[in-house]
Amino acid sequence: MPEMISVEQARDLVLSHVSQLPAETVPVLDAAGRVAAVDLKSDIDISPFAHAAMDGFAMRAAQLQSASPESPVELDVIAEVAAGDTFEGDIPEGACVRIMTGAPLPAAADAVVKYEIVRNVEGDGRPGSRVAFETPAKLRGNVREAGEEARAGEAVVRAGEVINAAGVGFLAGCGVTEVPTPRRPRVAIISIGSELVPPTQVPTAGKIRNSNGYALAAAARAAGALPTMLPIVEDSLEALKVAVLEAVREYDFVVTSGGASDGDFDFIKPCVEQTGELLMTRVNMRPGKAQTFGLVNGTPVFGLPGNPAAAYCGFEMLIRPALRKMQGHSNLQRPLVKARLARDAKKGDTRRIYLRATITKDADGAYAVEPAKNQSSGLFGVIQRSNCLAVLPEGGEGRTAGSLVECILLDVNEDVCL
User: Fold this and answer.
1) Under CATH, to which class is 24-47+148-182 assigned?
2) What is the distance between the alpha carbons of residues 296 and 245, in angstroms, rounded to a whole number?
3) Record: fold of 336-409
4) Where are the beta strands (DSSP E) in 372-417?
5) What's the pTM value of the predicted model, to 2 decimals?
6) What is each CA distance from 317 to 55, 77, 139, 277, 410, in whole angstroms?
7) pLDDT tier for residue 384 given thresholds of 50, 70 and 90
């Protein structure tokens, strides 16, 4: 096992040891944001009948062939069809039918003229009125045809496709009320440290509140997973081994924070090594060099550093893609854009650096990025106020103001194409 590997190698390593989870069936409303496990088919034609695309008047287009402002064609309104109603009768020469949006097109009609361009000659445009048309009608104009969007038996959402809110409505209209989708991974969150206390407790001397556990659980939930925060584990190899072995029996992925370095009280590496297979201990990134990954009884176990920014960056770059893969997603990385630095970014470290930063767009559509002034790996507040990670590549050189750098957009979903 190499001493240190690149971020790309680390990501590939983690991804190679996770697989798409088996499918479960959920109500269609709960399928938003999830991936279809199978092709989903409509049970009827969509739309099931030709209908008016807007409020107007239905007739045969040939009736208005000669219509012009100088010589309008006048027709008698003989009926009205509202959405949900039908008109089965004939439309004789010199007549038309008032029709509402969504109402079935009468069999005797082949066009709809929108209400706004029709002039009332007698009456208010309802049955018994007479109306004038000053332009010809287009054959099948303002008509949504039967089966225009889908045919009965046709796959309307393909396996592997992410279902969005509109897709939920589309599926409901196609009679799909339940959706098979890869189940969401159950993720155990374990915070390590004898100094940790729950947020409900006021810390005494030498103690701090367990903020990492909450941040990582929230990040797992944002990735679509089902996180569970397990009890805090003291700085003890035996206690940690017990906690990890219990977690891998119930959960699909285990994430720990703290104890990832090589100090006297850092135990996640020997824990994984002694209970399973240790695959990774160092990643060429800052913050977050100390990243432990391995398998315990076949379950992925990832040990993040205890510093908040290091844990957060490690999760974003390495764990989030894995959780998405387990749910069937094919787009696994956040969108990247290039932006000009608003100020100098010093480096002084050969590792790849992820600067917590804020990206904006100017009036010309160009991106500018301003790294936070305080890049301490112990701060959560800076990440709360950031919307991207500005990347300084490997090597000791920094970047000056105006330089182009790659930025990972933290508030944009992986499925968005920029």
Assistant:
1) alpha beta
2) 7
3) Beta-clip (2.40.340)
4) 388-392, 404-409
5) 0.89
6) 52, 66, 56, 22, 11
7) very high
